[in-house]
Structures are given as structure tokens and as C-alpha cells.
Recover the amino acids of this structure.
């Protein structure tokens, strides 16, 4: 399950923010902020995608880097929200 | 207003030909559709396309001095020409026209390059001294009127627009400069005198050049925005600053209404253009015709505010309504006029607006540009203040939320979480860094590099910033961060984007001259003497301007939260019917041939756009930037073409 989700997250991130980068250019623990993958408006794109794909609602107070700032963090966040 | 072009032989001994001058001046006929004039010597040629505004009968150029040893062509206006002429006549000079141009030759006769200190205006000047065999070029202080040049095979070619250089001599290389392209994808515009075309430079604002036959080119700055010199607190009260500013602006508006044709005004709905229209209404007897852009997309539209001013001043008002399709359709034509890649579509509505002005038979409009830069209006200044405030107490959970207040007009608000705010706005940065205020913007914009080709990626990304540091460090030494931000914004955003790509080029495309009361150098110099903490008082932008105008504006306009002028970007191409040309300019083959972007990344962005999902700042800038780069490549490098007439109509002077 979590591997599938990680795959899904990576594919979304590459498709929408990295466009044509090599697969090894982003590790699952890399911070999106520090790697410059996502800018301030990118976070909202990410939230749109989460809400649509996983049928969940992301609350304002959940919009924090601890939940959203790497592939692994996203995967845990999705797991927590959808369990 | 006008277009100018010319040639000076430096080491070449090929005589200058009239026919080459005609090929150069024809492509800028939109700048001056009323007729042409030429001066042709053995080593020099001057060409002029005229838009008649002052001295409709007699002002044909080139214009000479009493003994015909000095010849001038000129694009722009000298607003204080009546005062200068009176003084010159008292000193014995004889005039043969009533035009403002003629004061230049007489003043130059007396003072050489020091003549520029006396001119209150917006201009690009080319003056030939037949005795000394010297060509003198000059540009106004803020860069309102353009002037480009290149050296090719021993000759200097210059013109109001780059297309003239390429049309005049088809052997001049037409190549895009990858370094400058990287600057554009960081700063939004070229950082200095280089253009996106290899070997083609602009004469910078506030500079003159002396070029001599058998000699070389000497370029010198004669004026710069004096932010750095403004740190002595005069002890004046806010009210005194406000009163002085008002007096200066009234005079600036009066001077800028001098014309032998009717003068209109742009009205955006914001504070600055409201100030200008209200000053015209209250302090002059000019019948007021106003022009506005409206948008079908409500995020960008300011129609309600525009209407409020129209009702308040009862002006004769006209609006150009912009839909996504209209902006998308006009965009390639807009890029033919900007002659440089842009990261925003925002010039396009102004191109459509100048067409509306032209259809109303107006040639001159007053506009509000410059107030944000010189009087402290932009959000980037506010953002810098908030970042500095956060830095002072870095552990505060509350302070970062101030950033939230900053960008409510954007549907895409980045500032929901304090932690994100901190990261996106780099609140840990040191306030003393030279480009403190601009770093977050440049960093965000620089992320468009994800679309670059390998070739472009390999080039040093920091080169552009280092060049800027070299140019600005000394000038800004000891300057506070707020003034530094204003200076950088005035030099880059205003000088190298707003006044050219979005200003001169969009208005002149339809033979319309913009005039800018806030950019009268007396106003600019005065604004620099206002202490930085009063320019933006706490977070109240343009504090002194608001104080000085409150009694001649509706309170709602003064109190209104600032909305920056923007147009829909990606949506202009994908929000309605997609223009056919998108697949041509951005086809993988064309992208590969141009060599600047990664075709696969471009295609992925296009599919993302076609899905009409939410797009971030970076994607919007990248898309418009790449599309415009490809258009520049196609129209100027690959398929450059100006269909020249067999014979120029309407030649008025050949000397």
C-alpha cells in the first residue's frame, strides 16, 4: 500500500513540478522547499491534488511542512488521513 | 513622438546610403506615421519618422542650428522648451521652427553634453556635429524613450527599435544571447545594457555617448536616481513633504499637457492614475478623455474603481475589454513590438488599449507609471519590511502571519502557514545583503530553469546577479534596505521592463505617446529626500502621496488596498479557445531547433496547461517566457522579415 502511494506521489511530483528531471534527482526524504521543487503556489496545487485523489479534506492548520514537505512526509500524512 | 535611426562610419569608408537609412526607418513607421526626414553625409546618416504633436506645420526633422553645423533627430518631448527657448533667444540664438527639437541644437552649441542637465523631458537624441565629426547620442534620465545600437564592420548603427538595425543591414548577426536569456528568467528583464540579441545594446537611461569618425565610442552617465544620497533627515513634517510633492506634481502635469493636439489619460482604478486624472481635472482646463482596460476575468478587473473615478471627475471615458482570447490572439504581435522575451502577458492589454486611443484619434496620454517605485508603493517593499520585522524576533509565531495580509488579492495565497511563509520569503536572510528585498522574487523566478535545455542549464546562473552587484554595490553603499529595493526596482522593473516592453513599445505600436508626470526628474529627486520610514509609514504604502492628494480623491480610492496591474497569463492561452500558433512555436522540433528549452519538459507543461488545473507562479512565468522566447526566435532570428515598400511615401526633408 505505502509503496503504491509513494509511487503515485512521485509520479505526481515529477509530472507537475519536475517536468523532465531524472528519477534519481529527488529522494523520498528530500525537502521540497530546500530542493526548490515547490514554490508557494505549488503547495496549493499539491493540496488540490491530495483532496481530489484521496478524497480527503486538508485543513488550514494541516498546511505545514511536517505534513507536506517530502515524498515520505506526504505518504505518512495520506496514511494518517485516510486510515 | 517619433522613431529615429542612423549610421556613423567609424573605421569604414563606405559612403552612407540614403537607401539603407530608408530601410532602417520604415520598420518603425508606427512610431512616426506622419512623414520621414533624412540627413545624409559621407560618413553619417540620420533618419526620422515623425508623429506630429508640437509645431504641426514646421517641426520636420532633422533640424539644424543657424550655420547648419549641427543636425539633430529626436524622439520624445522637451517639456520645458518654451522657457529654454526664451533664454536662448535672449542670448542671441535664432530659431526657424516652433518645435521643441530646435532648442537642443542651440543648447548643445553652448554647452555640449551639459545641455542635458537643462532638459526636462523624455527623449532619445542623435545629434551630428559636422565640424568635429562627432555623433552625440543621449537618453532621458529614467529611460522613457528607447535607443539601441550595434557596431558592425566599422560602422555604428543606432535606432529606436532593434528591428531597424536588422532591416538596415541584413548581414548584422541575429542571435539570441543565452546569458541575457538567463537574466530574463531570473529578473524578468535584462539586467543592464545588453539586450537579448547578441551584440545589440541599449544606451542606458541617464547616459550619453560620443562617437567619432576615425575614433571610438565613449559612454558616460549624466544622472542617476539619487536614493543613495538621501539620508539626511531634514526634520520636515509629513505635511510639508506632502505639500511640496503636490506643488511639484501640479507643475509636472501642467508641463506634460503642452501639445498642439488633445491629451488624454489612462485610468487604471488605482491610486496613481487617479492622482494624475484628478490633477488634470482640478488644475488645468484640459478637457478630460480617459481610457481604461477591463478584464472578463474578475481576478484582474478594476472596472468598479475606474467607474468611481469617472463619476467623480465626469470624464469622457472609453474602455477596452480584454478576454482571454483577445490577449492570446494579440500576443505574437505584441512580441514583435517588445523585441524581447517577457514573463508576463501584462503588456498585451496595454497594446490593445493604445489601439483604442488611436481609434479615438488621440496621440498623447498621461499615465501614472513610476509612483510605486519612487514613492514606495510596491508589495516587494512591504514584503521586505515584514521580513526584516520577522527577523528581529525569529521565534515569533505571530509575525510571519503578517505576510498573509500582504497578498490577499491573489487567488493563490502562499502564506497559510507561518512555517511556509518563513521559508518562501527567506526571512532568515540578512537585511544588509545588497539585494535583500529582491532575493525571494529572483529565487522563485530562477526556478523556471527546470525547463532549460542542457546547454542553458550548464551556464552559470549567478552571473547575472554578480554583474548587478558590480554595477550597484558602490552606488548603494551605506543605503538602507528600503531605498536599495526602490533603486533596484527603478533600474530593473521600471527602466528595463515597464517603460519599454510595457510602456513605450505598447503605446508606440499604435502611434500613441505616453507621458509620465511622476517621472519628472524634479519629482524623482524630491521623492528621494523623503525619509524611507515616511515613504511607507509602517505598512501604509505611498504615505506622502496619499496625504498630498486626499482632498482631491474619493476616500475609497485612497484607502483601497493596492492591486497590482496584472493580466491572466497561462489562462490567456488555455482559458478559452487555444490559439493555433501555440503548436507552431512550442512544437518539439521548433523548441529543439532554438536550443534554449527542453522539448519534453515544454510538452509536459503544455499538457498540464490543457488540463486547466491550477498553475503556480513558476509555471505561469515559464510558459509566457518560453512562448515569447520562441516567438522572438522565430520572428527575429529564423524568419526575420520586413516587407519594404519600393519607394517611401511622404518624405519631407532630405539634407
Amino acid at each position: 500500500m505505502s509503496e503504491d502511494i509513494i509511487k503515485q506521489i512521485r509520479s505526481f511530483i515529477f509530472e507537475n513540478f519536475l517536468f523532465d528531471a531524472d528519477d534519481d534527482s529527488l529522494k523520498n526524504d528530500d525537502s521540497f522547499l530546500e530542493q526548490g521543487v515547490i514554490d508557494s503556489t505549488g503547495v496549493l496545487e499539491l493540496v488540490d491534488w491530495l483532496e481530489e485523489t484521496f478524497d480527503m479534506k486538508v485543513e488550514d492548520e494541516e498546511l505545514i511542512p511536517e505534513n507536506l514537505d517530502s515524498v515520505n512526509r506526504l505518504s505518512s500524512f495520506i496514511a494518517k488521513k485516510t486510515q | 513622438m517619433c522613431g529615429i535611426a542612423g549610421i556613423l562610419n567609424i573605421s569604414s569608408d563606405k559612403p552612407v546610403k540614403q537607401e539603407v537609412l530608408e530601410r532602417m526607418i520604415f520598420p518603425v513607421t508606427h512610431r512616426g506615421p506622419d512623414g520621414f526626414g533624412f540627413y545624409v553625409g559621407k560618413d553619417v546618416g540620420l533618419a526620422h519618422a515623425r508623429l506630429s504633436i508640437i509645431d504641426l506645420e514646421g517641426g520636420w526633422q532633422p533640424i539644424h542650428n543657424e550655420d547648419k553645423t549641427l543636425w539633430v533627430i529626436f524622439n520624445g518631448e522637451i517639456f520645458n522648451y518654451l522657457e529654454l527657448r526664451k533664454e536662448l533667444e535672449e542670448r542671441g540664438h535664432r530659431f526657424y521652427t516652433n518645435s521643441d527639437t530646435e532648442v537642443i541644437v542651440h543648447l548643445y552649441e553652448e554647452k555640449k553634453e551639459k545641455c542635458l542637465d537643462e532638459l526636462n523631458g523624455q527623449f532619445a537624441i542623435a545629434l551630428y556635429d559636422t565640424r568635429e565629426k562627432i555623433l552625440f547620442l543621449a537618453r532621458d534620465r529614467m529611460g522613457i524613450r528607447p535607443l539601441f545600437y550595434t557596431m558592425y564592420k566599422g560602422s555604428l548603427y543606432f535606432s529606436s527599435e532593434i528591428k531597424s538595425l536588422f532591416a538596415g543591414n541584413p548581414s548584422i548577426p541575429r542571435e539570441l544571447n543565452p546569458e541575457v536569456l538567463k537574466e530574463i528568467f531570473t529578473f524578468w528583464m535584462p539586467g543592464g545594457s545588453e539586450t537579448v540579441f547578441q551584440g545589440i545594446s541599449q544606451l542606458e537611461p541617464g547616459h550619453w555617448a560620443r562617437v567619432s569618425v576615425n575614433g571610438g565610442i565613449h559612454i558616460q552617465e549624466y544622472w542617476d536616481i539619487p536614493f543613495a544620497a538621501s539620508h539626511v533627515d531634514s526634520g520636515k513634517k509629513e505635511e510639508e513633504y506632502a505639500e511640496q510633492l503636490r506643488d511639484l506634481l501640479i507643475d509636472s502635469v501642467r508641463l506634460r499637457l503642452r501639445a498642439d493636439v488633445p491629451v488624454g489619460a489612462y485610468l487604471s482604478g488605482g491610486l496613481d492614475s487617479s492622482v494624475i486624472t484628478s490633477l488634470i481635472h482640478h488644475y488645468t482646463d484640459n478637457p478630460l478623455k480617459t481610457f481604461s482596460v477591463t478584464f472578463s476575468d474578475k481576478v484582474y478587473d478594476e472596472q468598479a474603481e475606474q467607474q468611481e473615478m469617472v463619476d467623480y471627475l465626469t470624464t469622457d471615458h472609453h474602455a477596452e475589454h480584454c478576454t482571454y482570447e483577445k490577449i492570446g490572439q494579440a500576443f505574437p504581435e505584441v512580441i514583435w513590438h517588445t523585441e524581447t522575451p517577457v514573463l508576463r502577458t501584462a503588456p498585451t492589454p496595454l497594446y490593445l488599449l493604445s489601439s483604442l486611443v488611436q481609434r479615438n484619434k488621440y496621440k498623447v496620454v498621461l499615465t501614472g507609471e513610476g509612483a510605486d517605485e519612487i514613492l514606495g508603493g510596491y508589495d516587494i517593499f512591504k514584503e521586505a519590511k515584514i521580513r526584516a520585522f520577522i527577523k528581529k524576533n525569529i521565534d515569533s509565531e505571530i509575525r510571519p502571519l503578517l505576510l498573509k495580509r500582504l497578498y490577499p488579492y491573489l487567488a493563490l495565497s502562499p502564506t497559510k502557514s507561518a512555517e511556509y511563509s518563513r521559508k518562501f520569503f527567506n526571512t532568515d536572510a540578512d537585511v544588509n545583503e545588497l539585494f535583500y528585498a529582491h532575493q525571494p522574487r529572483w529565487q522563485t523566478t530562477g526556478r523556471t530553469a527546470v525547463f532549460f535545455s542542457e546547454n542553458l542549464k550548464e551556464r552559470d546562473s549567478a552571473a547575472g546577479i554578480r554583474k548587478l552587484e558590480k554595477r550597484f554595490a558602490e552606488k548603494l553603499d551605506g543605503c538602507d534596505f528600503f531605498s536599495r529595493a526602490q533603486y533596484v526596482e527603478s533600474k530593473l522593473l521600471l527602466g528595463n521592463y515597464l517603460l519599454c516592453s510595457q510602456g513605450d513599445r505598447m503605446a508606440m505600436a499604435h502611434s500613441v505617446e505616453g507621458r509620465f508626470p511622476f517621472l519628472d526628474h524634479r519629482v524623482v529627486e524630491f521623492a528621494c529626500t523623503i525619509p524611507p520610514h515616511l515613504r511607507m509609514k509602517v505598512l501604509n504604502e505611498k504615505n506622502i502621496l496619499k496625504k498630498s492628494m486626499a482632498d482631491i480623491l474619493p476616500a475609497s480610492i485612497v484607502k483601497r488596498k493596492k492591486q497590482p496591474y496584472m493580466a491572466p497569463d497561462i489562462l490567456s492561452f488555455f482559458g478559452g479557445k487555444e490559439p493555433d500558433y501555440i503548436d507552431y512555436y512550442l512544437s518539439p522540433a521548433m523548441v529543439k531547433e532554438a536550443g534554449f528549452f527542453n522539448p519534453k519538459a515544454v510538452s509536459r507543461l503544455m499538457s498540464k496547461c490543457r488540463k486547466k488545473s491550477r498553475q503556480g507562479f513558476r509555471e505561469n512565468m515559464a510558459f509566457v517566457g518560453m512562448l515569447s522566447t520562441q516567438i522572438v526566435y522565430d520572428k527575429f532570428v529564423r524568419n526575420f522579415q520586413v516587407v519594404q515598400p519600393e519607394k517611401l511615401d511622404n518624405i519631407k526633408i532630405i539634407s
